[in-house]
Structures are given as C-alpha cells and as structure tokens.
Amino acid sequence: MRVAAIDCGTNSIRLLIADVTDGRSTDIARRMEIVRLGEGVDRTGRLSDAALARTRKALQVYAAEIAELGIDRVRMCATSASRDAANAADFRDMVRGVLGVDPEVITGDEEARLSFAGAVAGLDAAPPFLIFDIGGGSTEFVTGSARVEHAISMDIGCVRMTERHLHSDPPAAAEVAAATRDITEAVETALAAVPGRSAGTLVGLAGTVTTVTALALGLPSYDSARIHHARVSRAAVAKVADELLAMTTAERLALPVMHPGRADVIAGGALILKIIMDRVGRTELVASEHDILDGIAFSLS
C-alpha cells in the first residue's frame, strides 16, 4: 500500500510517501519545509495570517506530489500549535481546501504513541526505551518496550522557549538562566510521570536532536544515513548546546549542517536536549531520523 503521511508541527511541515507492507516501510519521498505555523502562538493564542499562508504554500506542493505518485491513503496530523490556537478552525478549513482531507489535531497521547511506533521500528537497542521528541511548541516523553507504557507532553519546544526567553542575539546569560529554570521544571514534571531514569536506552527524535547530532559528529553536511541511530555522549551534547547558545543567528546559519529555518531557534532546542540528558542522568543518547512521521505512515497500513 502506498501511503502519504504529513506531520504539521509548530516549526515544520513534513511529508513521507512510502510503500508499507507487513509492518515494513520503503521510502518513496521525504520532504520538509520550515513554515513556523506556531509563530507567536505562545503570546497571541492565534495562528497568524502569514503563518497560515506559508503552510498553505507548502501543502500545495505536497498535494501535487501526492496526486502525481498515486497514493492509496493520506493522513495528516497536526500537533502543538494547532492544538493551542483559538483560530484552529481556519487552519482546518485551509487544509481541507488544499489537501482534500481533514487534518487530525491529535492529542499529546496520540502524538506520543505515533512517535514511539516510528522510533522503535528497526531500532537495535536495549529496552525499555525513553523516547523524547523535541518539537517547536512541545516535547513528548514516552517510555515502553514493545508498546507505549507511559507518556506525557510538556509545553517546552525550541520555538516556544526562544520566543518566551531567548530574545537577544546571542542570548544573554539571564535569558539562558530563565529558560533553564523553565525547561528544568518541565522535565522534572515529565520524569515524575514517566519512568525515564530507569530506561535502558534514551532515544531522541526530530530536528533539534538530529542537527545537534550532526554537529557533534562533525559532519561536513547534513547526512541522514550517518545521523540515524548514531550514539552521542552527554558531554558532546552539552558542548554543542553551549556553543550554539554563544553564537549569533548568523553564525549558526553558516554551519554546514544547519537548515536555514532552524538557525534562530536551534539554541533553545539544544538547551532542552542538554537538560533532558542531565536530568535523566544518561551518558549517551541514540538519535533517530524516524519519528512521528513514520508512525503516521504505519498507522495507514
């Protein structure tokens, strides 16, 4: 069965077209655009007209590719920003008009379940797993072995923390301290709800984790094959996070692995990653290129 999975988060919108058979998936196409749908939502409570327009433009490109490749089933899931917004109905109407299907504004629990399913497929590591997905507006924490056993979604993400705290370029020490307090409180709340400290393997998902991994590995360019299932030490993560926080946006933008749409928020995401590793107390994490997008694809088979 050929399926199309779309994940629309606070920062990016991504497309996976895959052939799925008996729990196995073969990629036909993967696409990602930074549309910053959740820009300003933490402050205004609404999706801006500009953000909706950027998202519509990306969806139009995806819809054309879906039509061209002969898709059997399509599922689009929308996460943090469209859960929080007062004008979420405008977003749903726009998606229906462009894509021909309704977006599913999924709960944090469903987001966690799909992320877990995508992350554990093909993962050769010791269970139980603590899987965390650092998004633009929220971070999901999930524990389990063959299935989800505990999950919680916290309102910390690279866009939300940057907009809330990291206003200077580069961030001032007081701003980093305020973000650190906010993130640490949220991570401790999450770890009180999910038994992450007893996990056998820590698995990190999404663009913050994969970009930090690329930097820690010293890659000359972004290489998904080398990043997927790479192991990165806590010390290496801390070093990269501190370096990113000390850089200006322009300096981050010049890094060869950096997507242009991440340069202004990656320091906030890296700080979240650093604090998660510190509070969990693990010496390394496994980075995964497979995440909620793959879970959405598997759900269609």
From TrEMBL:
It comes from the Bacteria. The keyword Hydrolase applies. This is Hydrolase. Pfam families: Ppx-GppA. Residues 16-298 form the Ppx/GppA phosphatase N-terminal domain. Coiled coil: none annotated. CDD domains: ASKHA_NBD_MtPPX2-like. GO terms for molecular function: pyrophosphatase activity. Keywords: Hydrolase. Gene3D superfamilies: 3.30.420.40, Exopolyphosphatase. Domain 2. InterPro entries: ATPase_NBD, GppA/Ppx_hydrolase, Ppx_GppA_N. The lineage of its organism: Bacteria, Bacillati, Actinomycetota, Actinomycetes, Micromonosporales.
